[in-house]
Write a structure and sequence with these properties.
By secondary structure, the protein is α/β, with parallel strands linked by helices. Helices cover about 45% and strands about 20% of the residues.
Length: about 650
Amino acid sequence: MHFRSAPGLALRMQGSYDRCDHPADLNPETDVTAPGAQLRPFVERRRPNPVEDYWPESLDKIQRHLVGLELANKALQESETKFRDLFEGAPLGMFQTNPAGKLLEINYAMARILGFESVDEVLEQAAREELPAFFNPDEWDQQRLPGKESDVRSGIELKVSCRNGEMKWVRFNIRKVWNQGRLVRFDGTAEDVTDRKQAEIKTEFLAYYDLLTGLPNQTLLHERLVDTLAAARERGRRIALLLVELDRFKVINDSLGEEFGDRLLQELAARLRSETVKDCVVARVGGAEFAIILPDVDDVCQVRAVAKYLMVKLNAEYCFLGQTFNAFCYVGISIFPENGADSEALMKRSDVAMCRAREDSPNRFAVFTEEMNDRLVERLTLENGLRQVLARNELFLEYQPQVDIRTGAITGLEALLRWKHSKLGLIPPDNFIEIAETSGLIVPIGEWVLRKACSQARAWQEKGLPAVPVSVNVSAIQFRQQGFSELVGNVLRETGLSPELLELELTESLLLSNADVMSSTTAGLRELGVTLAIDDFGTGYSSLGYLKQFKVNRLKIDRSFIKDVPVDADGAAIAIAIIEMARALNLAVLAEGVEKEAQLAFLRKQQCYTIQGFYFSKPASADKIGELLQTGFGHLISVGAA
């Protein structure tokens, strides 16, 4: 800077000068550049020390800033290292994608979830777009909770395709990352929940499907039936509900084994699935009971045709596990809206119809009618009555003689249960025995029969009448009760009846069920000295091996084989075969249902000398039997011989 107007001023400006410390120092009086300013003499203001004296202080400040920066960088590096260690070593899968969903970063746990052994493999495949995307940003809004919007989606469960083609269920938590209002990436965590998901699916399957057959169970059937009914109401259409029950499945299962029974149910379910149209619902609702919903039914004739067709298909021969088998079924049918307006009503009425079909014979179907409903009410009335029958003392026994046709002597007596209802009068055994068995009431009733029969037999002896065995029918339910042989022993001791004067009548199917229990119980009864007879022999699933194993004492030929022996060659042949077999096995044999002289003559010719039937006596009271024990039936033998 040069000041030509003041040549000597340059010398006075040499050295160090301070700047003005405050803007107030610049005013018109002191600022020579201000208009009207008065030129004042220049005053030199020197620093107290040279500038070199301030360098150490400045350098020290710079150094402190550099050290701070270095420490900050070091802390940042350590933080990044810790984050990287946490990211890469986290047990939870972690990842980053760009806004389009392309993979940017991934940790080892995420790589393992996807079926890879290294992170690099995943990123390389992602870069080459060979890795299927497991997260689609376009579906972000679909994962939003109803009524809520945020940058985070939690608990998203997706099915992910892995490297080897395996599908896994993965639970994701994903958030959007923004920078200055722009979406830059997605960050997320992932957890393999395949095991839990499969368990949930299995649990749901078990809740709604039958494990053995894979068919819907009763719960799902009810839901489907409710939906089908709603659609039928809206469209003004009919639907039909069919209940299908396999005949005598328990006997089949017990005699041929549970494996065979399970396979039979699976085969039957497969036929139902394949023989019904796709709109039908087929379900398993019980042990050997199935249900079919038929939508859009035109009339009853159409339903009857479907039922007939299904029965033909279900009855066709089954071949598996080395067995060839034909199955028979019952079908009960109800129709909406004629037979009920809701699912519960239709189920009840189909069940009533199936019970009606069961009363006829195997391989029958029935469509519900109000008459059937009346019979159901009657059945419920009988069941309620049976629950109080012992307390009301409404049961009594009659006895039917078993006679030696050579002498006319009574060789035994069968105790037969009777029920005189206080309001309905005398009720036939066929009307209430099955109800007692299905309701479980047969157990206390059966014990009452056993005790009453033994007491009466002992009472006849005490009157000096001939001692003859008394036969008591035993239900399968009763026989399978734990401690049955002990119960029989207690009754014999309490009544004072000798064990050899008690005969228990069992059915063939009972012998073939649960062989271990049967062996134990029959062994206990043999130790007591009680004799065993097979009732209605020839009508069940016979097994000569079981006759030998359980050491039964007598066979009773069913009345159906005796009824027409004079004219029915097949019945006669079966009766002859049973008699010959019993003789070969050293078993006693008795023919039931003998009513005519021709039947008696046939049996005498076959040397079957013990019979039971109306030819000699109908079931009679204890007092009447006391008289017959004194007289016998010798007079009828002489008449017959003449």
